[in-house]
Write a structure and sequence with these properties.
By secondary structure, the protein is α/β, with parallel strands linked by helices. The chain is built from ten helices and nine strands.
Length: 278
């Protein structure tokens, strides 16, 4: 009897688990769904079917890459984030569920124009615009490769006419004022990098760390935000779970008001929010 898709998935899950990958079974199914082209929803109904040689070969190549701790999103080239599938490459940070807390908080009040600093894949600004059909946005990044990914995601989501991507270093070169400024900046301190999960070695380091204390991006964002916020506009940033008080202090020192630290779904500090003067 030929090897079934279920056999393939189970064998791969065992190999991944032995390698210390906690999400072994889930990863094996995601990779197999991509190898077969069935998609995750249909795969369950097809698991008893025989595995074609080309599927076996493609799947084995993907499993080998995952064993090196390359993220699944990089292997299959996509990641689901806040109601949409985004293209993901090694040029951008893998959009994470924790970042959805920032999107949810941003959607808690109206906005017409939004700026996403360090946009990466564009997942944040594009998720926001998809929920607000009358809004427009700008996403900035220093990486040309990241901006290319963001532009492709905008095209896929039919949002290119409402979102412009520009190459800037934080606020340098940004013009105009915005109702909402959001950012998920590099917040990992240099001395924390050696302890990160191996998967993060495959992601762009400039999106993870400032190579200093993990707070330098916040200093620039908080300093520049007042000049780019519309009256009563909001600044919202994602933070590491221990950075809430420090970032909140920076926003207060910059003259922003109603500074609030918000938790993610796991109850950890995740977002700092502040308003400009009315």
């Amino acid at each position: 009897m030929s090897q079934t898709l279920r056999d393939l998935a189970q064998a791969a899950a065992t190999r991944l688990e032995v390698a210390g990958i906690d999400s072994a079974a889930r990863d094996a199914r995601l990779l197999l769904a991509h190898a077969t082209g069935f998609g995750a929803a249909r795969l369950g109904a097809e698991m008893g079917e025989g595995a074609a040689p080309d599927v076996v070969a493609a799947f084995e190549q993907m499993v080998a890459r995952r064993l090196t701790r390359e993220p699944v999103s990089h292997i299959i080239g996509k990641r689901w984030f806040f109601n949409h599938e985004f293209q993901v490459t090694a040029a951008v940070l893998d959009p994470r569920p924790e970042t959805e807390a920032l999107v949810l908080a941003a959607l808690g009040a109206p906005f017409g124009r939004v700026l996403d600093l360090g946009t990466g894949s564009g997942a944040i600004v594009l998720s926001l615009l998809a929920e607000r059909p009358d809004a427009t946005g700008v996403g900035t990044d220093l990486s040309r490769a990241a901006l290319a990914v963001a532009e492709e995601n905008a095209r896929r989501l039919a949002l290119s006419d409402r979102c412009e991507f520009q190459r800037h270093d934080w606020f340098a070169g940004v013009t105009g004022r915005f109702d909402l400024i959001v950012s998920n900046p590099p917040y990992i301190a240099a001395d924390e990098m050696p302890d990160l999960a191996p998967e993060l070695c495959h992601e762009p380091q400039m999106a993870l760390t400032d190579t200093l204390d993990g707070l330098s991006a916040y200093r620039k964002i908080c300093e520049g935000a007042p000049a780019h916020l519309a009256p009563d506009g909001r600044l919202m940033v994602e933070i590491g779970c221990s950075q809430g008080a420090q970032v909140a202090g920076m926003m207060t020192a910059a003259g922003l008001r109603d500074v609030t630290v918000l938790p993610d779904l796991d109850g950890r500090d995740r977002v700092v929010l502040a308003h400009a003067d009315r």
